[in-house]
Design goal:
With 166 residues, the chain is mainly β. Helices cover 14% and strands 39% of the residues. The strands form three sheets. Strands 3-4-9-8 form a four-stranded antiparallel β-sheet, with no helix packed on it. It has a three-stranded antiparallel β-sheet with strand order 5-6-7, with no helix packed on it. This is Hsp20/alpha crystallin family protein.
Length: 166
């Protein structure tokens, strides 16, 4: 989607059509409003994390950079370190997790059981100046902090390749 939203004009209605006594006036007004608003703010709706209760399936992430390292902070409320897997493959750091929540309440006149499940995966392509061997993570009070220490970038040696003509 683009950042620009096209304004949609709602057709003018005659006073008889919009009268509260007209049987379809409120339905038409609702439909006009729906199509008039179509596109406004929908980009934010689709980019918003899906949520199940208090847990977001796309956890909030902050990335900061210092002179020595990059730091990724991920909010994972209600999770523990055993619920999360952090892996590195082909210069891509991947964080996966799953939230399982069950609640059961038994009273004399009813029995309530609620279950909610959700999983997430976030991947980060590492810049060339990160030392993959020195990456480490810490989990404290629902926040995972991943430290990505920097290293010097060694530029590959440049060479000229001979071109032969036929």
């Amino acid at each position: 989607m683009t950042d620009k939203v096209k304004e949609t004009k709602v057709p003018e209605s005659s006073p008889e059509e919009t009268s509260v006594f007209h049987p379809l006036a409120s339905l038409r007004r609702d439909i006009d409003q729906l199509f008039g608003d179509y596109g406004r703010g929908w980009g934010n709706f689709f980019n918003r994390p899906l949520s199940m209760g208090k847990f977001s399936l796309n956890p909030s992430t902050d990335i900061t950079e210092t002179k020595e390292a990059f730091e990724i902070s991920v909010e994972l409320p209600g999770l523990e370190d055993k619920d999360v897997v952090l892996s590195l493959k082909d210069n891509v750091l991947t964080l996966k997790g799953e939230k399982k929540e069950e609640r059961e309440e038994k009273k004399t006149d009813y029995h309530l059981t609620e279950r909610s499940y959700g999983s997430f995966q976030r991947s980060f392509t590492l810049p060339p100046n990160v030392d993959p061997e020195a990456i480490h993570a810490d989990f404290h009070k629902g926040v995972m902090t991943i430290l990505l220490p920097k290293t010097e970038v060694h530029e590959p040696e440049k060479r000229t390749i001979e071109i032969k003509s036929r």
